TrEMBL record:
This is Cyanobacterial aminoacyl-tRNA synthetase CAAD domain-containing protein. The keyword Mitochondrion does not apply. Its main location: membrane. It is found in: Membrane. InterPro entries: CAAD_dom, CURT1. One of its GO terms (cellular component) is chloroplast thylakoid membrane. It is a multi-pass membrane protein. Residues 62-145 form the Cyanobacterial aminoacyl-tRNA synthetase CAAD domain. The keyword Transmembrane helix applies. Pfam families: CAAD. Keywords: Membrane, Transmembrane, Transmembrane helix. PANTHER family: PROTEIN CURVATURE THYLAKOID 1C, CHLOROPLASTIC, PTHR33222. The chain crosses the membrane at residues 74-94, 100-120.
Length: 146
């Protein structure tokens, strides 16, 4: 396990409008107590493997296993290409709808109304939150087949 502890001073480079005001290291006075309190403390620690890197490695391994086990590789390539085309097309549709004058504000209003209803229905009172957790747990169990 490695550790790094640093106590950094406030940045010596200041931007005021279009002028850049900088102080050189020779002109820096000794810090006062208030300036010492304004310093930023940074602590970085490196441990073994992080969960993020192990998750990405497991995803790569599972994709590699699927690729190695498949007998119909052209179909997998076609499926991947179709997924890319679908993402590209949906991004263009969203951009086109966003450029229409009335639809974005209408959809925003619908989103605000639905969010308000959801908060009122499920999040304000404790029994309603418990009901929401039961619905979520039931859905997860149905999806995972448990």
């Amino acid at each position: 396990m490695a550790s790094i502890h640093a106590n950094l001073p406030s940045p010596p480079l200041l931007v005021h409008g279009k002028r850049i005001l900088s102080r050189t290291l020779q002109k820096l006075p000794l810090p006062t107590i208030k300036e010492r309190q304004n310093r930023v403390a940074v602590v970085a620690r490196a441990t073994g493997e992080s969960s993020e890197s192990s998750t990405s490695l497991s995803i790569v391994k599972s994709v590699k296993n699927i690729w190695d086990d498949s007998e119909d590789r052209p179909a997998l390539v076609g499926l991947g290409f179709a997924a890319l085309v679908a993402v590209w097309a949906s991004a263009n549709v969203i951009t086109a709808v966003d450029k229409l004058p009335v639809i974005p504000s209408t959809l925003e209003f619908i989103g605000i109304v639905y969010s308000s209803w959801f908060i009122y229905r499920y999040l304000l009172l404790k029994p309603n939150r418990e009901e929401l957790f039961q619905i979520i747990n039931k859905s997860v169990e149905d999806i995972l087949g448990q």
